[in-house]
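Example 5.3 — Voltage-gated potassium channel
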Amino acid sequence: MKQLSLRRRVFEVVEGGSRRAALSRIFSAALIILILVNVIAAIFETVPTMTQTYFQVFAGVEGVSLTVFAIEYVVRLWVCVEHPRARGVPAWRARLNYVFTPSAIIDFIAIVPFFIVALGGADIRTMVLVRLMRLFKLGRYSTGFQSLFEAVRRERHALVASFLVLTSIVLVAASLAYIAEREAQPDDFGSIPQAIWWAIETVTTVGYGDVIPKTLAGHIIGGITMITGILMIALPIAIIGSSFAEVIRQRSFVVTFGLVVRMPMFASLSSDVLHDLLPMLRAMTVEAGTAIIEPGEGDDALYGIAEGVVELDSDGGRRRLSVGDSFGASPDITDKTRADPALALTRVKLLAIDRIDLIHLVARYPGLAGRLKPNVQAGIVMDDGSGGNPA
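Solution (predicted structure tokens):
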């Protein structure tokens, strides 16, 4: 078995590799706890009495946090070249690309106070806003954060269009209010920029009451602006809400790039192959005791186990397959062997690719059959519970 490099082993712990899932969970849990403690400390440190009483505690928390976050950033920068997206890319370019990813930017912001204080730019207690930004580090571990960001990303064009419409309404309302109210209230509506504040709070239906129209025309314009604002503000809210609900539904178990590349049968594939493969894969959740492949059923799909245990009833006897193993259809179009019956022993999460899609993929990338076939066979002939995954 090929010995994994230290960098690869660290990468699997930091990024959640299946071979070190337990260590990865401990690592993630420790960071989550530290982030929460750090944010809570930053909040209470703004209370003068608590700062005087617990100054040493707050300073200790901040010191430990900065040290850990700095080490984490350096480690992630070191191991990012092991990411499947970095295949075939020079190490310096892979690291440069990583530095500008959203998660890396947030990680860097988390340690910015250290550099500012080290350069004598400010007292670390005045960096409350930057320190509270560390809360966004939880986005790496929270499906809720990820789902919200994904929902916004998916609907970004519609949201931009909604923003442009709202901006247009604000400008039109401000212009009309300026015309109607400039003589009656020159201090509040003496120019369009001054009237924009009133238009914004009216369109958003906030209505602070600090600026109100006094003329009849101004009242009419204000009423129309309120009604229009209610209708238009609902538009982006509905867009994000429906998209967020859809993403949450999909994330109950969804095919992601990270999930696919952790599967042994896909781990060594190039980025081009993975790009074509991802749309073909479908996620399945099978409850314990459910037959995945019935006896005598055709091998219409290749299955990879992402979670759970499957029992395969082959000619050599019953065998248990676990995370990383695969079974079902062969990528070889000439292989007429019928797939062995498979039963879910626990609740199982599977990645499945239909045989016809698999054949088309192999036709497009002839070398793919040789890479997948050992994994398919390994899952079937596994005797000792080791999973039969290639080294």
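Remark. DSSP finds 17 helices and eight strands in the chain.
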